[in-house]
Amino acid sequence: MNRLLFEKTGEAVYLSHLDLMRVFQRAFKRADIMIWHSQGFSPRAYVSIALPLPVGMGSRCEILDFDVEDGSVELTALPERLNAVLPAGIRVLQAYESSRKIKHLRYLAADVTLEYDRGVPEGALDAVRELFSRPELLVRKRTKRGEADVDIVPGIRSVEPELISPQELVLHAVVTAMDPALNPLLLGEAVRAHLPETAPDFVSAARREVFDADLQVFR
Fold it and tell me: Can you count the helices (H) and strands (E) in the chain?
């Protein structure tokens, strides 16, 4: 399997998953790289992104699988060719062959930034650290059947809060990527729900890395 490692940053974080798929399908065509197409009345270029990103979340470790129609491609030249036609904020970091199946991708590391217009409240760092040591953390989450209170603790491998500026507190987290997947933004929702005196004015998140079950970098 041919695989790309790419990043999604800046204004590109507001592209939906389907839009991102179309961006890459068109980029391959513009770069004159013939990738495999589905069969049928309306054939589509085959690309598969491992972990769809929520709209608004950035990442520097996205993985995309693709197949080339003629079975061969100069992978070392692919990043430059694709980056020349991709929009700002989407950049291919590496192209390579991999035999590792996506089902073996288990964890992801993310930075969740809590922003406070009037400054981080006194004692917030210790309060947040204590919060994520609790045996249960119920957070209101949208599901296919509506909204429900979900315990996010089973999806958390680790959370380490850090004060990075007078207005920003960052949660360096490792959470499950699959079975089940935990959206890192729910860590910010947990702070809002359980520590109202420490509730941030704005929460953002970005993926940093992805891992297998042994916490080895997944490629």
Answer: 4, 10
Residue 6: which of 54, 64, 48 has the closest Cα? 64
Which parts of the chain register pLDDT below 50? none
Can you tell me whether residue 113 is helix, strand or coil?
A: strand
Handedness of CA 140, 169, 162, 108 (dihedral sign): positive
Residue type, 184: P
- In the DSSP assignment, the letter for residue 197 is G
| Cα separations in angstroms, 62 against 131, 165, 210 | 29, 28, 8
User: pTM of the entire structure?
Assistant: 0.87
Question: What local confidence, expressed as pLDDT, does residue 71 receive?
Answer: 63
* DSSP per-residue string spanning 203-214: EEEEEEEEE-TT
Contact in structure between 17 and 52 (CB atoms under 8 Å):
yes
Longest dimension (CA), the chain: 62
DSSP state of 128: H
Give the burial class of 37: count Cβ atoms within 10 A of its Cβ; 0-12 exposed, 13-18 middle, 19 or more buried: middle
Q: Are 187 and 144 in contact (CB under 8 A)?
A: no
Please, what is the angle between helix 185-194 and helix 124-131, to 10°? 110
- Reference 152, options 140, 142, 162; nearest CA is 140
